[in-house]
Each structure stands twice: as C-alpha cells, then as structure tokens.
Design a protein that fits this description.
This protein is mainly alpha-helical and about 230 residues long. The protein contains 13 helices and no strands. Helix 6 packs antiparallel against helix 7, helix 9 packs antiparallel against helix 10 and helix 9 packs across helix 13. It is about 65% helix and about 0% strand. It comes from Pseudoduganella albidiflava.
C-alpha cells in the first residue's frame, strides 16, 4: 500500500511543473516524519521561483512556514536563486517590504548571465510594487547601472509602462530607443539619454532608502553585505 508521502512524491515527480493532484487533505494525513521528508523537494521548487510550491509548503509547515523560510534563507549559498525568490515569498506572507529590499539587492548581486533575473523583476517584483516609487527608482537604477543590455531595455519598458507613458508591448518608440542607445553605447549615458530618462522618471530616493534598510538589517544578521554589489555599481 502506498502511503501519503509516497503518493505526493510520485505526483511531484510526474507533474513537477504543474503540481497537479495535490489537496490539503493529502497533507493533513501526513506524520511529522513524512512532513519533514517532503519539505525538501517543495522548498527546492519554491526557492527556484515556483509559485505552485507555496501552498503545499504552507500545508506542510503550518505556523512555522515563515520562520522556516527565514532560517533557510540565511543558509543559502552565494548565487543561489533562492536568495532572489525566497524573499519574495516572505513578502507575500508578511507584507514586510524589507524582504523586497533584500530581493532587489540580490538581483543586483546576481550574475548578469542568469536570464531569470529579468523574470524575477518583471514577473514577481513588478507584480508586488510596480506602482510604487521604489520600483520606478529600481528600474532607473537598472537602466543606468546594470551590465546586461537586455535588462536595461526591459527595465526601460517596465518603467515606461508603469509611468503610463503609453507603451503596450515590449517595443520601444523612437524616443525611448534613442534613450536606450545613449545608455548602452560608447561614452554612455549621454546627456540626451539622461534628459529623456529624467523626463520619464527622476529618482525619488525611495530605492536608496530601501537599500539602506537592507544594509542595516544585514549588519545584525548573517546576510550578505548589501553595501557591496558584485555585478553593479551603485
């Protein structure tokens, strides 16, 4: 006879992306030992940005969900995707924007060749605070300082869309295309490119304040030093 834990593991293996077939009742029937066994695969998926792993992990951990995520976050190795994604799930559970500050700091620290950096910003961070000055300032920071041209372009699109500039798709109009060219070309950013960016959005200081909060928190915890960015210069 297949026990509840084995059934969940088999379902997880069969539908690793969709996580079909999971119900709260299946998890309620688990023993403490079985719950401990299942936390690992679901946390691994959650740390990789899989939203479908959130509910099962909450069922497994109950009231310990937030404390478990905080503890595991502190022990993730440098460069782990979970350093970007786990803070987002903590924000979703607590609404404490300190977690988003840590997420943004890790996005800046991450290897520019990691393609999911853009997904983390556009698919998660923008969903949470896209209408806020913190996000607008962060996009401006990426446009000015990120070393990945694709990130610069996408951040410019996000900023224009959130500021209701009129862009519907990911195609830049002539003015914004000139801005991007002036940011990424030799000798950039050019004076003209800065004028266009400033007209779109001037820095409010909200992102800088968010980073200062993350830096202060790092001073009292075993977190990375967010005052020293690996791949981007403040």
């Amino acid at each position: 006879m297949v026990d509840a834990a084995d059934m969940i593991l088999r379902e997880l293996a069969a539908h690793s992306t969709e996580k079909e077939g999971f119900a709260r009742d299946d998890f309620d029937a688990l023993t403490d030992q079985q719950r401990h066994l299942l936390v690992e695969p679901f946390f691994a998926d959650l740390a990789d940005g899989d939203a479908a792993a959130v509910a099962p992990l909450q069922w497994l951990l109950g009231e310990q969900y937030v404390s478990c995520l905080r503890s595991r976050l502190e022990n993730l190795p440098v460069g782990a995707p979970g350093l970007v994604f786990v803070p987002y799930w903590l924000y979703e559970a607590t609404r404490d924007e300190l977690h988003l500050a840590k997420m943004m700091a890790e996005i800046m620290r991450a290897d520019p060749s990691w393609a999911r950096r853009r997904h983390a910003v556009g698919g998660y961070l923008r969903r949470a605070i896209g209408k806020s000055p913190v996000f607008w300032d962060f996009c401006r920071y990426l446009i000015l300082h990120d070393s990945d041209p694709s990130m610069k372009k996408t951040a410019l699109v996000w900023l224009a869309q959130e500021k209701e500039y009129g862009l519907v798709e990911l195609t830049l109009d002539h003015r914004l295309a000139n801005c991007l060219a002036g940011m990424t070309g030799p000798g950039g950013p050019t004076v003209e490119a800065m004028k266009i960016l400033d007209a779109l959005h001037s820095d409010t200081g909200a992102f800088a304040a968010s980073m200062e909060r993350a830096k202060n928190d790092a001073a009292t915890r075993r977190h990375p030093d967010y005052s020293k960015q690996t791949h981007a210069t403040p």
